[in-house]
Amino acid sequence: MQSESNSYKFPAIHDFPPLYTRQPTESTWQNQVKEWERIILAYYRSQRLYRLNLVEATVPGASPLFDNTKIKRRLSLETLEEIVNEMVRKGLAEWVTDSNTGSKSAARTQALIYWRKPEEWSSLLWNWINEQGFNNSIMTVYEIANGEAAEGTDFYEMDTTVLIKALEVLSANGNAQIFTGTGDVDSIGVKFFGT
């Protein structure tokens, strides 16, 4: 993440030392969480990131987002987990499920960060499908996120898990049908219905 942030300018609050220490007073803590939510969402949007590995992100020097070398402060893993828990509660993040067991990881080490929620992504996708004339056609998840037609869109090279969640919203609304295959996730097919 270090090289990705070279062009990103953090807000002034990012240099405020108390931001990196979990505040004991509940009202102050809630304000601290709100500031971190804004910072995380803005950073992830600017860098087009979707997944947060809490352990990796809190290693010294690993991420300028959580390790501010200018003021020599770093957010702890425990505090970051509490912040992400609040984000999950508000629908701004989701803990990643262990694909082998189907259960949430006990350690809660990874989260999807929703700088756009799946419902918002589904609206963008649906508009794109209609604009491109892809109604009544079948595409793979890979084509949707990485195909030539997707270049230049906000969802180009999108995280597959987030894309599938957006497609599930379209499916629930009756605008798409998802066909799971026997191969990898990128080969999942999606049929889009007419308007």
From TrEMBL:
InterPro entries: ESCRT-II_cplx_Vps25-sub (IPR008570), ESCRT-II_cplx_Vps25-sub_N (IPR014041), WH-like_DNA-bd_sf (IPR036388), WH_DNA-bd_sf (IPR036390). It comes from the Eukaryota. One of its GO terms (cellular component) is ESCRT II complex. GO terms for molecular function: protein homodimerization activity; structural molecule activity. Gene3D superfamilies: Winged helix' DNA-binding domain. Chain C. Domain 1, Winged helix-like DNA-binding domain superfamily/Winged helix DNA-binding domain. Keywords: Protein transport, Transport. GO terms for biological process: macroautophagy; protein transport to vacuole involved in ubiquitin-dependent protein catabolic process via the multivesicular body sorting pathway. The keyword Transit peptide does not apply. PANTHER family: VACUOLAR PROTEIN SORTING-ASSOCIATED PROTEIN VPS25 (PTHR13149), VACUOLAR PROTEIN-SORTING-ASSOCIATED PROTEIN 25 (PTHR13149:SF0). Belongs to the VPS25 family. This is ESCRT-II complex subunit VPS25. It comes from Umbelopsis ramanniana AG.
